């Protein structure tokens, strides 16, 4: 089935597992994008068709986390995102929140557990989900191995917002962007004063040696 032609009502779609990231990276990323005037779909209105919203979005940001594959909605959404990437050239960005990219690519650990039961129910559709996960996880992206309040998450958000802004609006005023990102830093610093911190790292990575700005 071919993807239908729709006007693009959203600049960005966020695909994520709510219980893992809604109150951390995804919530903060959504706020930063909205404050820059970037129309972003957060996937909280269950009555809205996922396929329609995906088609209407310029960029899809896929936030993988430990429990992403537990959600049938996430898996179906991801499969359609990859279809739109192939058929209409939709831009996709990947983020790995507290999960190793290899775990998503190879469907190991929690991802393996999520598929073991479902393979008995419908092996064909599980294979399509596996392919979508592998393909999406090989897209250039960011890995965030951190707790929400250690400062690494906010730096990752800065990089994601910068990448999206430049793709959507190459001449976006840097002063406006800097103002929003300063607010993110301030919020993160306030949170850190009352939360435990552990050493960790955040870095962008690239399996296929293609940079975002070179796509």
- What are the low-pLDDT stretches, counting only 5+ consecutive residues below 50? 192-215
Backbone CA Rg: 17 Å
Shape: globular
Report the total helices: 9
Helical content (DSSP H or I, runs of 4+): 40-55%
Helices and strands, in order, run as EHHEHEHEHHHEHHE
Q: Any idea what the CATH superfamily of the domain at 10-145 is called?
A: Toll/interleukin-1 receptor homology (TIR) domain
Number of strands: 6
Q: How large is the share of residues in beta strands? A: 15-25%
Classify the fold: give the CATH topology of the domain at 10-145. Rossmann fold
Highest-level CATH class of the domain at 10-145: Alpha Beta
In whole angstroms, the N-to-C terminal distance is: 26 Å
The CATH architecture of the domain at 10-145 would be 3-Layer(aba) Sandwich
Q: What structural category characterises the helix and strand content?
A: alpha/beta
Major β-sheet annotation = 6 strands, mixed
Mean pLDDT: 79
Order of strands in the sheet with most strands: 2-1-3-4-5-6
Layout of helices and strands, plus pairs?
Elements: E1 10-15, H1 18-21, H2 25-35, E2 40-41, H3 50-55, E3 57-64, H4 72-88, E4 91-97, H5 101-105, H6 110-121, H7 123-137, E5 141-145, H8 152-168, H9 174-192, E6 201-205
Parallel strand pairs: 1-2, 1-3, 3-4, 4-5
Antiparallel strand pairs: 5-6
Helix pairs in contact: 2-8, 4-7, 6-7, 8-9
């Amino acid at each position: 089935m071919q993807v239908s032609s729709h006007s693009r009502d959203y600049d960005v779609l966020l695909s994520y597992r709510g219980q893992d990231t809604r109150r951390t990276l995804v919530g903060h990323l959504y706020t930063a994008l909205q404050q820059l005037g970037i129309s972003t779909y957060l996937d909280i209105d269950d009555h809205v068709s996922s396929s329609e919203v995906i088609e209407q979005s310029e960029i899809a940001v896929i936030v993988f986390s430990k429990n992403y594959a537990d959600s049938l909605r996430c898996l179906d959404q991801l499969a359609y995102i990859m279809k739109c990437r192939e058929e209409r050239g939709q831009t996709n960005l990947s983020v790995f929140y507290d999960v190793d990219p290899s775990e998503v690519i190879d469907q190991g650990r929690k991802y393996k557990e999520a598929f073991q039961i479902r393979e008995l129910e419908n092996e064909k559709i599980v294979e399509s989900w596996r392919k979508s996960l592998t393909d999406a996880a090989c897209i250039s992206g960011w890995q965030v191995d951190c707790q929400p309040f250690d400062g690494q998450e906010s730096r990752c958000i800065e990089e994601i917002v910068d990448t999206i802004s430049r793709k959507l609006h190459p001449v976006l005023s840097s002063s406006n962007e800097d103002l929003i990102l300063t607010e993110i830093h301030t919020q993160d610093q306030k949170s850190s004063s009352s939360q435990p911190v552990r050493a960790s790292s955040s870095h962008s990575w690239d399996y296929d040696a293609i940079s975002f700005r070179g796509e």
